[in-house]
Amino acid sequence: MFYGRLKMSVICVETEKCVGCNACVRACPVEDANIARMNDDGRLIITIDDDRCIKCGACIAACSHGARGFNDDIDRFLKDLKSGQEIAIIAAPAIKIAFDGNWRHALQWLRNQGVKAIYDVSYGADICTWAHLRYLEKHPDAKVISQPCAAVVNYALRDKQELIPHMSPIQSPMMCLAIYLRKVVGYRGKLAALSPCIAKIDEFQQTGGIDYNVTMDHLKKYFEKQGVNLPQIKIYSEFEFDDHQGLEGAIYPRPGGLMRNLQIHKPDMSVVTSEGTEKLFKELDLYLEQRKDQLPTVFDVLSCETGCNGGPATGVDYHRFAMSDIMYDVEQYASKVRKKNTTRKGVDLQFAGFDKTLNLNDYIRVYKPLKRSDVKVTEADINRAFEGLGKYTVEERRFDCHACGYKSCREMAIAIAKGINEKENCYQYITKTIHEERQKVDAVNSEVLKMNQELMAVFEQLTHNIDKVKEEAGDIRETGTKSAQEMTSVADHVHQLNALNQNIVNAMKNINDNISKYNDMTQDVESIASKINLLSLNAAIEAARAGEAGRGFAVVASNIRDLSDSSKRSVGSARENDEGIKNSMDEINVVIGNFNETVEEMVNVVNATIQNVERTSENSKRIEDSMITVSEIADKVQEVIQQTNSILT
Fold it and tell me: HSE of 452 in the Cβ direction (CA atoms, 13 Å)?
């Protein structure tokens, strides 16, 4: 099975692998079966409209990316078989192509798994041939399109319902065998068709009677997955089928198989064949345009170019010659058996038996058209779609490059108008859009180039300024270093001055102390002078008393008094001088105090100046480093701009 996929119908799409190449659209015989959509990632994805898909499998063969596959009933079949349900197999003759020399082993494996019986669809094909002949005998004017191909029937029921009255009323070989088993053999269990066809699943659902469509392709893949080695399967009997084995019905799966069978019995019957999706469906449309007298009695059609042997579910890719070689032996064997079953009078014993045991009406199919969602569009809608594609002229609307998968630009415009395709899927639209965008880009590039050139000039000036800033920052740092050194020298001198000032303060203190001592000495002198004066006074008194005898003593006393007075005057002058000196010393102390404060302020200012100069030097260093980094960035930006310019030019 096609697991992990987006199931739109029996045909499945693996969106991760879809590249939107439109190969499926191109291969599909039904115009509206494929839907193009832009996904969330902006990728074009082609999905399927289940109501329009005819399951021909052409898209699977056309997809080189493995994005399409199909589902069948193999899982349900195997599950029911393992559960013990009664199931019989009807095997299409294409099994000889699909499994080549191992087809008997494949059937034996199924029998070993509990399959109730295995019947040959070739026998149903013989019944189908018989039914056609008898129907045409009863309706000599009939013109019919054969219907063994389920994809063709789907085309008539879903897309081209005008074909329904022309479809052969005879059931397909598989359905003929199923009806035979139910009506004649009396089989009541379930039937599983081992088929090469994807579309058979629709036929079985539409007609009933067959419960499973087990494709040969998926059965082969199951064998591979389970490691089943077919050549090692022991075959218990050379006669591999239950009930009757078909004759020429075995060649139905080749191109013109029905025609060959009909003309064996009616050599002059008018039969025209057509195979392959590329021409068949065109010819079916053409069939409707012909007068009845221009039509063949039977239009034998198969969707697959190499017939059912090359069906999309056979799992093989043989060329026509290889298939013909395999079928040649089958046809020779069937012809030989047919001769044995024909009397000397030319009576076909097989068909004679059918005439006795079969009821033609049991094998007649009544067709019921399937509902479909048709979207009608007007010329105005189509014109709007063309305009959306940027197609205004006749030449633009007839570009017909087929890149979108459609045969003409008009078909693409119709699909867009119907909402099943996107304008981004049009090559001409994308090319034109790219051209317009390119022009816009070129214009932008020109502007960018101009701006880059201006930026280059700015960066050149910037680089020059950066160099100047680096140079000046270096000068500032150097000057700051020198200033810091000079300020340190100033600080040292200020500290020396402060020390000298302190020495002066100390000397002034000593002077003050000595002046204080001098004052004390002056007071002592003054005291002594007072005492001397007192003594001189006493001496004068005593000299007066002594008279003439004390006259010399009186002179001495007078001299002593004069000395005392002189000492007092000297002491007074000394005191006056001391007071002046004291006042001067006080003034000097005030000056020295102010000087101390000024020196301290100078020290603080010098220290602060040194710190500021050091910070300025550090900042200058950082500025210089930053300018180096900015210069490097500017160089890189210039390099990028130059590279951009080279790209733009």
Answer: 19
- The SS3 call for residue 376 is coil
Q: Which residue intervals of the chain bear CATH 3.30.70.20?
A: 1-71
The structure tokens listed for 251 are 């060649």
* Residue 373 dihedral angles phi and psi, to the nearest 5°: -100, 90
pLDDT for 551: 66
Is the Cα torsion angle 450, 451, 457, 459 positive or negative in sign?
negative
Adjacent-strand bridge partners of 195? 215
State which H helix or E strand residue 410 sits in: helix 409-418
What SS3 class is residue 432?
Answer: helix
3-state secondary structure of 90: strand
DSSP state of 58: H
Q: How many residues does the chain have?
A: 649
Mean pLDDT along residues 96-101: 86
Q: Which of 14-23, 141-150, 240-249, 528-537 has the weakest average pLDDT?
A: 528-537
Q: Give the mean pLDDT of 373-401.
A: 92
Please give the structure tokens belonging to residue 472. Answer: 């000046």
List, for residues 151-185, the tens digit of each pLDDT value: 999 999 999 999 999 999 999 999 999 999 999 99
In this prediction, residues 402-422 reach a mean pLDDT of: 93
Q: Are strands 190-195 and 144-145 parallel, antiparallel or unpaired?
A: unpaired
Q: Are strands 44-48 and 34-38 parallel, antiparallel or unpaired?
A: antiparallel
Question: Listing from the earlier edge strand, what are the strands of the sheet with 118-120?
Answer: 118-120, 87-91, 190-195, 212-215
How far apart, in Å, are the Cα atoms of 609 and each of 65, 423, 602?
A: 81, 77, 10
At 7 the three-state DSSP class reads strand
Q: What is the CATH T-level fold of the domain 1-71, as seen in this structure?
A: Alpha-Beta Plaits (3.30.70)
Lowest mean pLDDT among 3-7, 164-168, 399-403: 3-7
The upper half-sphere exposure of residue 525, i.e. CA atoms within 13 Å in the direction of its Cβ, equals: 19
Q: How many CB atoms lie within 10 A of CB 157?
A: 21
Q: What is the DSSP string of 266-325?
A: -TT--EEEEESHHHHHHHHHHHTTS-GGGS-SEEEEESSTT-GGG-TTS-----HHHHHH
Closest C-alpha to 377, from 405, 423, 406, 419: 419
Question: Residues 6 or more apart from 530 whose CB is under 8 A from it?
Answer: 564, 568
Q: For CA atoms 578, 579, 581, 585, give the dihedral sign.
A: positive
Query: Which residue, 175, 151, 167, 178, is CA-closest to 57?
Result: 151
Sequence-ordered alpha helix ranges (H) in 113-188: 121-138, 150-154, 173-180
The answer to whether 220 and 99 are in contact (CB under 8 A) is yes
Encoding tokens for residue 391?
A: 């197609």
> Which residues face 364 on adjacent strands?
170
In this structure, which amino acid lies at residue 476?
Answer: I
The fold adopted by the segment(s) 429-648 is Helix Hairpins (1.10.287)
Q: 253: which residues sit within 8 A by CB, 6+ positions away?
A: 92, 93, 94, 97, 196, 307, 308, 309, 311, 327
DSSP string, 236-265: --S--SSS---SGGGGTTTTTHHHHHHHHH
Position 582 confidence tier, pLDDT thresholds 50, 70, 90: confident
